[in-house]
């Protein structure tokens, strides 16, 4: 009897797996076509001074709109772009496009404005990544100091030595590095010091805790203190209300990104939004 159950489970399992693999392959082809047909686009979410709401920069966020108008969230297609290798070309396009947009913002009069770009493991370990950064900055004519690359803690675990080496070269170019979703990965504090990053982005889970009654935002507060003792910049992600903003200010966190201040915007919307600060 046990055997029969086992066989039934087994065939069920493989059938499900077959469906999942086919679905992934379908998504991969669709993503490649979408990229070629220019159905991927970038939105920009402002990052601000918490106290004044004034912009300091923006994060470039990738979007995929299918032919029938459905928006597929990046959390669903970035993993597919990564394991298929498509992320290398897509990521290059994101970086170049973000730098060009940064150049336009600088020309409009906001010279200190920074652009943050998410970079995945596959891009980071690509042998031509450093050349790509140089070329993207050069072609757009923007200073390296105004570009910020967002990496994740998990990247520190895959190949720490390669990561440290690459980071040093990027830092030597003058480009800034921040750790995205900070606090959710498992990087150790000693690793953090070795990585010599510029900035920590407090994951929005810890910002949520400020107002959902879990606690008073003790983890967010701790990350702010950590950033101060390591002399790093810090920014809070996913700030959705005034209470969170005020608490964060009381913790000594100066910068924020979140729907409370501004939602991700297309180019035109971003320029309109920035007009007020020129
Ligand atoms: P992330 O880098 O941590 O980006 C922040 C995410 O939080 C964005 O989701 C943003 O829309 C969302 N967000 C911002 N403020 C709020 C808020 O107040 N409340 C809530 N609930 N959410 C907020 P999005 O755009 O869906 O991106 C998800 C993730 O996809 C990003 O997380 C990033 O890891 C990845 N991603 C996006 N674009 C790229 C890209 O060009 N390259 C790579 N490698 N990854 C990307
Ligand atoms: Mg990010
Ligand atoms: Mg994040
Ligand atoms: Mg994320």
Coarse structural class: alpha/beta
Q: Which compounds are bound in this model?
A: ligand C2E, magnesium ion
Terminal Cα span: 75 Å
Helicity level: 40-55%
Low-confidence sequence ranges: 1-5
Q: How many beta-strand segments?
A: 9
Strand order of the largest sheet: 1-2-4-5-6-7-8-9
As a percent range, the share of strand residues is 15-25%
Morphology call? globular
Outline the structure in words.
With 278 residues, this protein is α/β, with parallel strands linked by helices. Helices cover 53% and strands 19% of the residues. The protein is built from 12 helices and 9 strands. It has helices spanning 2-36, 74-84, 86-107, 121-124, 129-140, 155-158, 160-173, 189-195, 204-211, 218-229, 242-251, 267-275; strands at 40-49, 55-65, 71-72, 114-118, 147-152, 176-182, 199-202, 233-237, 255-257. The protein has an 8-stranded mixed beta barrel with strand order 1-2-4-5-6-7-8-9, surrounded by 6 helices. Strand 2 (55-65) and strand 3 form a beta hairpin. Helix 1 (2-36) packs across helix 2 (74-84) and helix 9 (204-211) crosses helix 11 (242-251). It starts with a helix and ends with a helix. One magnesium ion is lined by residues 180-181.
Summary keywords:
alpha/beta; globular; disordered N terminus; single chain; binds ligand C2E; EAL domain-containing protein
């Amino acid at each position: 009897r046990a055997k029969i159950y086992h066989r039934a489970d087994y065939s069920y399992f493989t059938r499900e797996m077959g469906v999942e693999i086919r679905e992934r392959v379908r998504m991969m082809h669709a993503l490649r076509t979408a990229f070629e047909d220019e159905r991927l686009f970038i939105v920009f979410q402002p990052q601000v001074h918490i106290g004044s709401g004034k912009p300091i920069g923006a994060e470039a966020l990738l979007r995929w709109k299918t032919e029938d108008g459905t928006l597929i969230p990046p959390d669903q297609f970035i993993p597919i772009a990564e394991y298929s290798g498509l992320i290398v070309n897509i990521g290059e396009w994101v970086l170049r496009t973000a730098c060009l947009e940064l150049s336009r913002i600088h020309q409009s009069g906001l010279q200190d404005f920074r652009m943050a770009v998410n970079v995945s493991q596959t891009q980071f370990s690509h042998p031509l990544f450093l050349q790509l950064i140089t070329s993207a900055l050069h072609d757009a004519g923007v200073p390296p100091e105004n570009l910020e690359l967002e990496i994740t803690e998990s990247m520190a675990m895959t190949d720490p030595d390669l990561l440290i080496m690459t980071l040093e070269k990027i830092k030597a170019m003058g480009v800034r590095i921040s750790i995205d979703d900070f606090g959710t990965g498992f990087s150790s504090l000693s690793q953090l010091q070795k990585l010599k990053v510029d900035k920590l982005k407090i994951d929005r889970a810890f910002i949520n805790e400020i107002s959902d009654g879990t606690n008073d935002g003790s983890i967010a507060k701790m990350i702010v203190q950590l950033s101060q003792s390591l002399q790093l910049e810090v920014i809070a992600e996913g700030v959705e209300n005034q209470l969170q903003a005020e608490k964060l200010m009381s913790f000594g966190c100066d910068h924020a990104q979140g729907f409370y201040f501004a939602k991700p915007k297309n180019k035109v919307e971003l320029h309109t939004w920035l007009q007020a600060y020129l």
